[in-house]
Every structure is written in C-alpha cells, then in structure tokens.
Amino acid sequence: MGKRYIFLFLITLTTVAIYFNIIYRNPYFSTRNFMKHIETITSPEYRGRLTGHEGSEKTINYIEDNFDKMNLIPLGDKGYKQSFKLNNVQLSGECSFRAFDARGNLLKEYVYGKDFKEISFGKSIKGKAKGVASSSIKEGKPIYLFEEEMINESEDDYKLDTILSDNGVKATIYTTDSYFRFRTPYKLQKNYKSGLIKIMVNPTVSKEIEAFSRMGVTFEIKTNTENKNVEGKNLIGMIKGSNQTLPPIILSAHLDHVGFDSDGTIYPGALDNASGTSFVIEAARILKKSNPQRNIIIVAFDAEEVGLLGSKYFAENPPIDIKNASVINFDMVGSNKNIPLSVLSISENPLSKEVISIMEKINIKSSKLYMDNSDHASFTPFGVNSITLIHDDTDKIHTPYDTIKNVKEEKIIDVFKVLKSFFTYNDIVNDKNFNVHENIDKVDLYSNYIFLSFITLVFLNGLLFIKRKG
C-alpha cells in the first residue's frame, strides 16, 4: 500500500508540473489572449478610450499592468508613461438641429445619431447658429451646406474653414453616409482665430435641407463641443537585447479611439485599434521569452485619432537613440473581411520592401499603400524606416458597430507570421522561441485534460490515505 501511495503521489506532482508549465510558460502567441485583450478594452467601462478622458486612463492602466507583469524595462518619464499636452475636442452637453417655417414655427426636429451628429475635427466649436442654409459661399448665409459627400481631415479643411468664417458663415453641414469616419487627422492650427459650428447629416437629410432652403426655411444648429487642454500618455517598455551595438526594433500601436457621443453611445473601436494594441501586448509576452539580439521597444501611442500626436511626440523625444531603428506599427489588424494585409508607408523604403518580400515568401496575400494616416508617418521626417501593417477595412471604423465581431481570431495568425518571419530572417530571435499555435483549442483541451487528471489523482490519493489510516 505504501509503495502504491508514493507512486500515485509522484504522478500527481508530475501532472501538476506539466499543467503549470503549459499554463504559465506557454511559448506560443495566443490568439485567445489577443481576443481577451480586445474584449476588455472595448467593454463599456472603457468608454471608447478618448484621449484625456477617464476611459483612456483606464486603458492606460490596463496596458501598464500588462507591461509590468512581463517585467518590461520602463522607458517613460514616470515608469512606462511618457506624458505630453494637447488640445482635444470633447462633448460638454446636448446637440440639436431644428427647422422652422417662415412664421418661426417648428417644422422639424432632427434626431441625433440618426439624422445628424456633431463633428469634432478642425476648430469645431460650441454654440448656436440660426439662419438660411446655402451651398454658395458668396451668398453670405450663416449656414453653409456641402452638397456633395465631403468629409475628411486635412490641412485643406483649415483653409476652407478660414474662408467660410471670413465670409460670415457660422455653421457648416457636411453630408456623409459614413457615420463619423475620418481618415487623415491633423493637428489643430495655432493661428485658428475662430471656429465653426459643425454637424454632419446623412444624404437623405441633406436633400431635404436643400429643398427646405429653396422654400426659405430657417435652420437652428446647437452644439456643445469644447476644445480642452488635456494630457496624453504614451506607454513605453523595452525588452533588452543581447547585442547593444545593434539598432532597436520598435513595435507600436495606438491605444486611443474616439470615445462616445452626446447621447451616451460608445464607439468601442475593436478593429481600430484595440486589435493593434492587443497584438502588441501579446507579441511582447512572447518576445520577452525569446532572448532577442536587439532591443525591442514596445509602445502604445496615445492621441492618434487627433493627429498622430502621441507618435509625433515620441519621435521628437525618443527615450533612446532611434536613428537607425525600424518601426513596425499595427493598426486595424485582424479584420473579418477577406482582404489582404497591407503594408502602409508614406513612400517605399527599405523596411517596406523587405516586409513585402517576406510576405511573398511565406505566401501571405499583401498589398502596398502609400498614406500618412497612421503612426508610421511620424517617423519619416526623422529618416527612420517605418511601416504600418493594416487590414484596411474602413466599413465600420469610428462607428458604434466596430465591435469585437469585426475582428476574426484566425486572421491575426497571418500578422504574427509576418512579424515572426521578419525577426527570424534577421536573426533577431530564435525561431523555436517565437511561435504561434494555430490550434489553440487543442492546447486548451490538453491543459484541461491534465487538470482533470490532476483532480482525479488527488481524489485517489485521498481515498488511499483514508483507507491506510483506517
């Protein structure tokens, strides 16, 4: 009986050791972990991760906790945080849009979130404008209507706003069916002396406004947006490489999104960009165990949605020398649509060429995009090779419908394979120490099987112990 008891006890210890080795020393990139991170930071309490808002602070704390668990080396001003100041448009109250007939009677009250919505780019200000709408600047009407769908963020918007303001325009109405989708943010101009009240409407409402305008109908627009001075926070951690003479690799993603609107609707931002943030967190977990040759800088940028401000600040104030670094940014990765993984850069550079070549070698469908609408663009003025890997699916971004359903777990494996191949082809990590498990369910099944075996053995040991005592 004693030998049998000792034998079962040793088997139990071995089972426990194997189980904890699988759970706590998992050498694989886990798509399950990736999805759990997305689920967390897109949940309602994170409030759409608007820079300077409490939801953003909660996100920052979550990422910081993960960096801390991985024992990354802090490179911020205070721990992992690199703080900077910015001006951000935030909601401060309700918005309304109404039409009145010639006698001043209420003709129609438009529904917020269905017929119209405030705009928070450029110098969008709080206030009220009332008058006739016109699509001609020369008429000098207080409300200007864009007849065609024209909604974006660029330097041209600043110039156009200035022209409109100089011609007596107080408010602008944009037409869009995109529901709060803007692609190229820019920094608020310092010499913006005055702003405009801005709303957007869907195409049906736009046509109605045109018809009403011909009838002399008066419109009243009221918005409650404020330009606030807030603090943005990048999070920076480092995995130390074995060869300090080699330049670093920077892996980045932006943590912020567009927040919520005046009726409380939250914009979760799952694909944009909880996906990139979650990918970088999980990649860092595996890289920490891979003993890389080069320093790996892990960065979560803040304030991308208001003009790439976090990455610009980082590029201007790097915590270590990044002169010859390579920047791989992740923005909107894992779309559930059947689209290629794009390599986004301002223009072709050695890094973009290399990554495209790698994708061809490992048979991953790719495309090239030359744009400045993600954080890679902040490094180009400093001569740093940079790209963004992106599944360029814009159908639901900056809408309440960009939920975790917009992200496909299996699609992220391709993104990891590209990163893994880049590291292994350049001898930055050992191939065996940096891997993805393509069937994580089997790993979970194996873990659960071992755990149940452990419980069974404990039960049997207990029975033997009781029997022996008896």
Automatic annotation (TrEMBL):
Pfam families: Peptidase_M28. Keywords: Aminopeptidase, Hydrolase, Membrane, Protease, Transmembrane, Transmembrane helix. Gene3D superfamilies: Zn peptidases. Residues 234-419 form the Peptidase M28 domain. It comes from the Bacteria. The chain crosses the membrane at residues 5-24, 446-466. InterPro entries: M28_fam (IPR045175), Peptidase_M28 (IPR007484). One of its GO terms (biological process) is proteolysis. One of its GO terms (molecular function) is metalloexopeptidase activity. This is Aminopeptidase.
